[in-house]
Amino acid sequence: MRTDKRHSRPGRTAAVALAAAAAVLTASACSGGGGGSDQEVVLEGVDDGTTLTMWTRAATEAQSQALVDEYNAAHENQVELTVVPTDDYQTRVGTAAGNQELPDLFAIDVVFAPRFTTAGSYLDLTDRIGALDFKDALAPSHIDVGTVDDRQYLVPHTLDLSVLFYNKDLYEQAGLDPEAPPTTLAEFAEHASAISELGDDTHGTFFGGNCGGCFVFTWWPTLWAEGQEPLNEDGTAANLATPEAQELYSTYRGLVEDGAVAPGHQEETGATWVSLFPEGNIGVMPMPSTMLGLMPEDLNMGVAPIPGLTGGESTFVGGDSIGIAQNSEYPNQAWDFLRWSLEEEQQVELLAANGDVMARTDLADNEYYAENPDAVLMNDLVAVGRTPYSLGFGQTFNDPQGPFLPLIREAVYGDAGADLAELNDAVTASLNS
Amino acid sequence: MRHSRKLVGAAYAAPVALFVAVFFVAPLLLVGRMSASDWPLLSGDMGVNFPANYESIGDNPLFWPAVGFTLKYTGIVVVILLGLSLLLALIVADGGRRGTGFFRTAYFLPTTLGFASASLLFFGFYSPSIGPLDPLLQWIGLTDEPVSWLGTSGMALFSTVVLVVWKFAGFFMIILLVGLQAIPPDVYEAARLDGASRWQSFLHVTLPLLRPALGLVLILSVTGSLLAFDQFFILTKGGPDNSTVTVVQLIYREAFQRFDLGAAAAISVVVLVALLVFNIAQFRALRRDA
């Protein structure tokens, strides 16, 4: 509740105020536009002691901060990193873009990127990316989503994949083979059911039942692995009522009905869905790969690809892409940071060393991954994984009032066998609005 | 002489007038202009399209349910807050009793907490995985199974009302307390001499004399509830199944999920006009009876 107290007096004060306000408005209307740089393009970047500003969201702060600290230590240029709370990030960047107040460099959750690339918020990097000798190794799905009309605007920054996490101790207790994670969705359900039999405080699995973004991130890979396309290529039509999709929903629906899902799934908005597994009482669930480095030391767990209905594997290649603001005055200096951050040494020493997934697919053979098979598995998935593209992605899938959540909730919690065609049409309509 | 007095008066008022102009009137005009324009968040003003933004309000399937829910929520919260804060004020009004200071402070304390922080605190309380409420209730033996505090539309509304009442009852109590203390003791004495019972003197002395304070509480709580946002944004995100979407959440959604400032501004203007009418009606009603 807000307790605003606003008084305004009629008469002369108001007239004065109106005049003043009109003046302010006229002034602000005239100050838009502008910005941009007339620098000549230097493909390898420039390191001349420029101070660059950069924004990222809290979810990927650790990786960004490590890169920035290392860069600042070894370069004349200095990057000033501002970290914005994840939930506010799109709002903040959107507002800044409208006001031409973007920083030189800003990362963006890759699924929201098309909104910003098509609106002209990012600088065209096609030539600069083309000059990199490792350009073909950059996470392909990130590059695809950052491309508009064959022009490339973004490079991958931090990668966050959806993978199955499973608790080996619970697998053993339930009489399952701890070295044989599920290879089909049916097996996944069997394992989850078996583990939920272990006791009241042990649960088979968990998911964010009131979180549209979580469903896309953790459930769509099953469809992709099955050769399905839940979203068409140009992001204008949804395909979420197919028999395969129905089977996916009904499998999870069955787990809910059997009580194999930890309590709280129905109201989980996505704020705390990853906090259950590390407690050690969840059997198997799909989660973000960035959680791997945050697992307790004593948790005996493994990682596996998300399987399709009948086999195969896929992943949602999420995380942040990064680019240079269209109105940045220092694109060459900003590119110096981006190019440097993608080089082998930084990718291996700063990301692989920490168990993170790298932005490149050609560096998996490194000393740190040799001792970390889970990281190798995740890094290899980057090549086969997908990043869905749609201009209306956020307002359709992430918005809690968007049309995707009602479809999923009807399928999982509503009437069994409900007809989803109409709800699917609503999703398609939102993608095009 | 008169003339210069007027000038001095204007000079005194000028800083406030400037403040109001820059921080209230100017944004208001800007919102008005946005509401009549095609104004995407990312690309800025694309020209006038009046009245497209206003027409699209009615087409939004979430709008009328949100209006209905906001009014329902406001009704519930205002009745409970008014009753409870009056009760609290009456309990702690007598400063002479032992422990009064403690209880006044205790009731007022939630007010000092930020609203977002309070919402997050309750989000933790209600969480099925980390919340202490369920284990506590089960230990006492009141419930057998975990309660889904935010999982159904009824419980989500109930849980949010509990938060809001906890957060604001103390604040409104203080307003009413000041009102109570302004009532001179001799009025009560006269009532007692006339043979009025405690209940009669409450009904015929306290309530009428408390009217200005009650009016203030009413207007603040009605306006605040109609503008509800933070608590639902944090606790329910409008769920489950869009059952707790308030009007202000729709504004936020248009602006920052759908990136359409024009549509957001149009709803804002409608809400502003509705609030204005509502408050004028309330002022009139309160003044007429006084």
UniProtKB/TrEMBL annotation, chain A:
Pfam families for the chain: SBP_bac_1
Organism annotation: Glycomyces buryatensis
Name the record gives this protein: Sugar ABC transporter substrate-binding protein
Gene3D superfamilies on file: Periplasmic binding protein-like II (3.40.190.10)
UniProt signal peptide: 1-29
PANTHER family: ARABINOSE-BINDING PROTEIN-RELATED, DIACETYLCHITOBIOSE BINDING PROTEIN DASA
Record keywords: Signal
Superkingdom as given in the UniProt entry: Bacteria
Keyword Signal on entry: yes
The UniProt record lists the keyword Signal: yes
From TrEMBL, chain B:
Main location: membrane
Keyword Transmembrane helix found: yes
InterPro entries from the UniProt entry: MetI-like, MetI-like_sf, UgpAE/MalFG_permease
Keyword Repeat: no
Keyword terms, alphabetized: Cell membrane, Membrane, Transmembrane, Transmembrane helix, Transport
Topological relation to the membrane, as annotated: Multi-pass membrane protein
Subcellular location: Cell membrane
Segments passing through the bilayer: 7-30, 73-93, 105-127, 147-180, 201-229, 261-281
GO cellular component: plasma membrane
Occurrences of domain ABC transmembrane type-1 (ranges): 67-282
Entry's Gene Ontology BP terms: transmembrane transport
Protein family: Belongs to the binding-protein-dependent transport system permease family.
Name of this protein: Sugar ABC transporter permease
Organism of origin: Glycomyces buryatensis
